């Protein structure tokens, strides 16, 4: 029972899912201001309407545009570099992107509460969701945030989001710097480095490997990578994982080796890649989208992520020498007096486990009933006869 550390079962140390995520109020207001300014002027011009005509039904037009945006663009990455289409991308993906990054960063906040980053680097920053998510956790300690995106138009939108939607307003978050290229100096490191939905936009495997090595050189504590929860997104992250764990640079400025912090409880090859049919390792997180006409009240973002740490002992310190922590990789099936769990174990195996109070103890059983897909679960006896390998 020591693993509970005095917490109730529903809030045990392995719970890393968030309640339904909401955008910060300042970010939402700024986004809506930008969208409305663009929608009622530029987008009406695109549709051939006279913006100032008294015959235009603004509400009907707004609903039609929003429905098309959310239908066509929600699940895609942006592949444009002008400000107008960047605003369309913002309407479709701001809330979902922010949610995925915040959920990934929550893993660090929950399991390493002593981590107090002073600097953050956001590669492929786009709308700046990583800096907003990081600021929501570490506003008191973050003093320098660098956003790197090759698109000047996206940097402009991200800057306007910080200024309430205008170009001249005071920034809500200070000490934010926008760049189109990564800092050149190999000695310049950041406590926290984030690359969200950016590796998938690079043209080749070689480009991705080079960028991953560069981002790792810039990392002094944690590197966080996030991609869409598709087969392609999961594969990109596993390639990045292999690049850093198996192809380490010979002349590294920082010799500390990487270790996997999350979601994998091991440094072995991903067991899901050995299964057929291939099912990506992804996780859901509920969120509230921008309040635009046609948008649902609540949505779920499905994403894949990878957190690598410079400190190999971090995982051991978090576990505290207690039970092995496994990752729930599928929805938990709750049945009378038992719970079906699919878990990725510290041994590198994927297993299905039937958890009962009699077999695993009351505390583990109640934790299992309270856990959700993506949480960690303490497994006291991972070699238990009630578990079955999925190999």
Features:
methyltransferase activity; Rossmann fold; OB fold (Dihydrolipoamide Acetyltransferase, E2P); six-stranded antiparallel beta sheet; alpha/beta; 20% strand
Please explain how this structure is put together.
- The chain folds into two domains: 25-315, Vaccinia Virus protein VP39 (Rossmann fold); 323-389, OB fold (Dihydrolipoamide Acetyltransferase, E2P).
- The chain starts with 24 loop residues before the first helix and ends with a strand.
- Strands 1, 2, 3, 4, 5, 6, 7 and 8 form an eight-stranded mixed sheet that branches. Strands 9, 10, 11, 12, 13 and 14 form a six-stranded antiparallel sheet that branches.
- It contains ten helices and 14 strands.
- With 391 residues, the protein is of the alpha/beta class.
- 35% of the residues lie in helices and 20% in strands.
- The longest helix has 29 residues, at 83-111.
- The protein has helices spanning 25-46, 58-73, 83-111, 129-138, 152-162, 205-217, 231-246, 314-319, 357-360, 362-370, and strands at residues 119-123, 144-148, 176-179, 190-196, 219-228, 259-262, 283-287, 299-309, 324-328, 333-335, 338-344, 350-355, 376-379, 387-389.
- Helix 1 crosses helix 2 (58-73).
- 40% of the residues are buried.
- Strand 2 (144-148), helix 5 (152-162) and strand 3 form a beta-alpha-beta unit.
